[in-house]
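User: Please fill in residues for this 905-position structure.
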């Protein structure tokens, strides 16, 4: 919406338009007195988001200007809603005192808030990071640099990858709120990502990604001679991406951001890789059933007491370790805290009262902290000495390391305690922030302001006595200052030294020289008090900034301690064991349980199962059994147990040995992606293809049904080929759990030695199915789909008819006898013999089929060859001939027949 106006804008609107022109992509909040106002398109956009009235300026003009506004004192909440909607917000403040301004008050944008540059707690999720990411691509080779920063915690990382697929995986893992790319670039992968996750895309001038400028910017920010100390000197694209982030911060007026003191490079090979599908299918962070955190692995493991600990635990789950030493260090710390329950409880209780040191420190370094922020920081720092005492008795290396690096920060806490009142006022302008005794001059002005009320009371009493007017009042307001108010009935008694100040309907207001002198002193004192208190608070803030690196380091220590205590608490409460991890190729779990599902069952009712996978004898498990038997649960619990183990957590089992896994892949369930033009089967095939292209012999693959979205023969063929590929991969294969309803796959164990068959125990009793949820060797011979349909509430006539049809098919019947339809049953011409009408399923003659079967040498044929022969027979039947194209000889392979048939077609 554009406002065309033929009249010249007022000076105020001219100032607004000039400032808005510098921030065209942001909603401009323009300070006018006690309100932030928005005009024109900004008002039209913001009003429905904020659910406030859209009004107009110059309502009587030919082209009134749309406007809306929010109170200055409550602006943070409104800004939070705008940013949450993906908008950028430019805060335009009055940068001079309106009382001292000559003409129009000077205004400037003091801060631009974007989804990736947020410091205010209203816009942040306490236990989730808020990343701003940037991507740079090499012009010479397929190399991408990805840098990401959480300005609220100072976490700043950089990585380089060598493909678009790896880049997308890493961005999905980081999950940034805002992504920066060079202007003019519109790569396909960006659009693919935007369909899969919610983030704001921002284009920057290419100069912001320039290699040399980026390096200079980083060197200047970190005040170092070179970037070698960070280990990124050879990461050209990483440097460009990190430099662009700093350029964006500076352009949005975030200041120096002295709390950002490190840029940490990492390699994807340092951590287990979890792609988007795996994280979603395993419900690591969110549950599809509850549409949120409840029901996820995180909800079970997160017993953290601080926001810092919650964010750290999430980071550990996103980046499981591949370094055995680091895993064992975490395990030993968790083990010590599990063993010493009293110590663990004391630590968690102590952490309970700690605020978010990390984000409080960040707000202080960027000059946005309030008195209440610093008091919250003080109270948190005062907890550190008690935690230090608890750590001093610990013996595990990681907890000892925390003890040795622990900084009690007592000097910082004491400075805050000595300087600030507690509790402080909501804002600095309210006054009363600095303690009495900190500054003598301030104390003097405070006394003058504080004593004003008592002086007024004394003066009022004296004037009543001298004038004899008992209703005389001495009052103050911001507009007229101090005054004496008399009712009109008492005007005849007004002394001569009273000077009229204001006339009201029923009263008159006066001033005296004494009252005027007092007013001047008090107002000057109050103004000087505000100025001096502001100055002292800024000085205090700067003093704390000097200690920001120490504070940030301790925030990291607290986060690690909280995460370790959380894992120990979960282990103790849920009866977890410590797994043995090594560099071998075995995954062996005894009495494994699903960490989430068991939380929703009565204690002790979850049925545990053993799983063994290796690359010598039992590398692929083909798992069969009916729906509802628990196949999916067993598959997922194995993957979750491996993930938990490589985080350093204890696991839901009685014992386990786990060889390190470089990636966990999952292909689970049926879902479509219609927005991207992908059917359920296409999604399934693309996810499977991704697994086959990227898996390595050290990966763990979970397949829950393959090929169910197409015809039976196509699906079975794909599933069989996938299983063969995983067994034969690079002659060593990949550890795989494969749940399927294709019972034919169990025959693969005849020709692939490392394929083993298992089924989930059930019992068909009195035409009802009983589930035991126990894993047993061997394949299932039925799917019991009709019984499950009964349990689901399928109409009885449907399931009964299904049983009749199934009985016919299982008996070898090659045709179906359809029931007569309603019209047939009502027709007088309907005869009983009409039910003999047959719907042919197979056209060849029985004699031909008999010849084919009799030609087989059953004394020498293997089960697998017999299965292949059946496939060949079906293929001939599908070709539609009444007679065979070629008779299968007793020792001829079905594969040869299939190839010949294919050539003829």
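Assistant: Residues filled in for all 905 positions:
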């Amino acid at each position: 919406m554009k406002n065309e106006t033929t009249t010249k804008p007022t000076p105020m609107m001219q100032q607004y338009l000039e400032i808005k022109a510098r921030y065209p992509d942001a909603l401009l909040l323009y300070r006018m007195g006690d309100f932030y106002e928005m005009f024109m398109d900004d008002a039209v956009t913001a009003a429905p988001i904020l659910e406030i009235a859209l009004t107009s300026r110059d309502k009587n003009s030919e082209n009134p200007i749309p406007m809306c506004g929010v109170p200055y004192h409550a602006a943070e909440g409104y800004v939070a809603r705008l940013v949450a909607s993906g908008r950028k917000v430019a805060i335009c403040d009055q940068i001079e005192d309106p009382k001292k301004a000559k003409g129009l008050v000077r205004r400037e944008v003091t801060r631009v808030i974007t989804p990736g540059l947020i410091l205010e707690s209203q816009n942040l999720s306490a236990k989730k990071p808020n990343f701003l990411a940037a991507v740079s691509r090499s012009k010479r080779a397929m190399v991408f640099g990805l840098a990401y920063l959480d300005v609220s915690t100072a976490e700043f990382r950089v990585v380089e990858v060598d493909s678009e697929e790896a880049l997308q995986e890493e961005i999905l893992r980081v999950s940034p709120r805002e992504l920066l790319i060079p202007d003019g670039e519109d790569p396909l992968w960006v659009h693919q990502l935007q369909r899969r996750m919610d983030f704001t895309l921002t284009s920057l001038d290419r100069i912001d990604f320039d290699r040399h400028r980026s390096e200079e910017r980083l060197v200047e920010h970190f005040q170092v001679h070179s970037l070698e100390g960070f280990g990124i000197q050879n990461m050209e694209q990483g440097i460009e991406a990190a430099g662009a982030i700093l350029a964006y911060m500076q352009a949005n007026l975030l200041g120096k951001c002295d709390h950002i003191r490190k840029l940490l490079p990492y390699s994807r090979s340092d951590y287990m890789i979890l792609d988007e599908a795996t994280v979603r299918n395993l419900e690591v962070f969110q549950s599809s059933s509850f549409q949120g955190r409840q029901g996820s692995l995180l909800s079970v493991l997160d017993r953290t007491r601080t926001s810092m600990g919650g964010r750290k635990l999430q980071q550990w789950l996103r980046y499981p370790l591949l370094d055995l030493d680091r895993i064992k260090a975490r395990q030993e710390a968790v083990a010590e805290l599990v063993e010493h329950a009293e110590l663990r409880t004391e630590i968690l209780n102590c952490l309970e009262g700690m605020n978010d040191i990390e984000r409080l420190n960040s707000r202080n370094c960027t000059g946005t902290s309030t008195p209440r922020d610093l008091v919250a920081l003080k109270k948190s720092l005062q907890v550190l000495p008690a935690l230090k005492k608890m750590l001093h008795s610990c013996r595990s290396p990681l907890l000892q390391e925390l003890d040795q690096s622990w900084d009690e920060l007592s000097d910082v806490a004491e400075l805050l305690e000595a300087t600030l009142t507690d509790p402080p006022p909501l804002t600095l302008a309210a006054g009363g922030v600095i303690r009495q005794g900190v500054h003598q001059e301030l104390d003097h002005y405070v006394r003058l302001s504080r004593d004003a009320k008592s002086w007024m009371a004394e003066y009022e009493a004296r004037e009543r006595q001298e004038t004899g007017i008992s209703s005389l009042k001495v009052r103050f307001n911001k507009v007229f200052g101090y005054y004496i108010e008399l009712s009109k009935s008492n005007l005849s008694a007004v002394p001569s030294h009273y000077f009229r100040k204001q006339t009201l309907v029923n009263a008159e207001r006066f001033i005296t020289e004494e009252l005027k002198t007092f007013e001047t002193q008090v107002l000057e004192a109050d103004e000087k008090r505000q100025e001096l208190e502001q100055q002292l608070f800024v000085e205090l803030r700067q003093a704390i900034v000097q200690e920001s690196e120490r504070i940030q380091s301790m925030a990291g220590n607290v986060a690690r301690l909280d995460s370790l205590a959380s894992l120990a608490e979960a282990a103790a409460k849920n009866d977890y064991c410590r797994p043995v991890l090594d560099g071998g190729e075995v995954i062996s779990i005894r009495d494994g349980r699903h960490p989430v599902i068991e939380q929703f069952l009565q204690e002790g009712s979850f049925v545990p199962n053993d799983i063994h996978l290796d690359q010598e004898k039992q590398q692929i498990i083909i798992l069969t059994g009916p729906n509802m038997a628990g196949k999916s649960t067993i598959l997922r619990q194995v993957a979750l147990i491996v993930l938990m183990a490589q985080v350093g957590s204890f696991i839901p089992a009685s014992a386990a040995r786990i060889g390190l896994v470089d990636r966990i892949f999952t292909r689970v369930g049926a879902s479509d992606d219609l927005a991207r033009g992908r059917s359920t089967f296409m999604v399934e095939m693309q996810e499977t293809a991704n697994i086959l292209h990227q898996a390595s012999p050290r990966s763990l693959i979970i397949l829950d049904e393959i090929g169910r979205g197409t015809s039976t023969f196509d699906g079975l063929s794909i599933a069989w080929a996938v299983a063969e590929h995983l067994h034969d991969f690079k002659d060593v294969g990949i550890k795989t759990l494969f749940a399927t309803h294709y019972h034919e796959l169990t025959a693969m164990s005849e020709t692939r030695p490392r394929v083993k068959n298992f089924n989930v125990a059930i019992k068909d009793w009195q035409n009802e199915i009983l589930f035991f949820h126990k894993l047993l060797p061997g394949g299932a011979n039925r799917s019991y789909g009709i019984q499950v349909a009964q349990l689901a509430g399928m109409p009885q006539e449907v399931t009964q008819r299904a049983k009749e049809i199934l009985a016919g098919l299982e008996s070898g019947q090659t045709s179906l006898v359809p029931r007569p339809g309603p019209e047939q049953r009502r027709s007088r011409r309907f005869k009983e013999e009409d039910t003999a009408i047959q719907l042919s399923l197979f056209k060849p003659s029985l004699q031909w089929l008999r010849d084919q079967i009799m030609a087989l040498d059953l004394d020498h044929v293997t089960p697998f060859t017999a299965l292949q022969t059946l496939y060949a027979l079906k293929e001939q039947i599908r070709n539609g001939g009444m007679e065979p194209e070629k008779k299968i000889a007793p020792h001829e392979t079905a594969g040869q027949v299939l190839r010949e048939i294919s050539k003829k077609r």
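For context: The radius of gyration is 38 Å.
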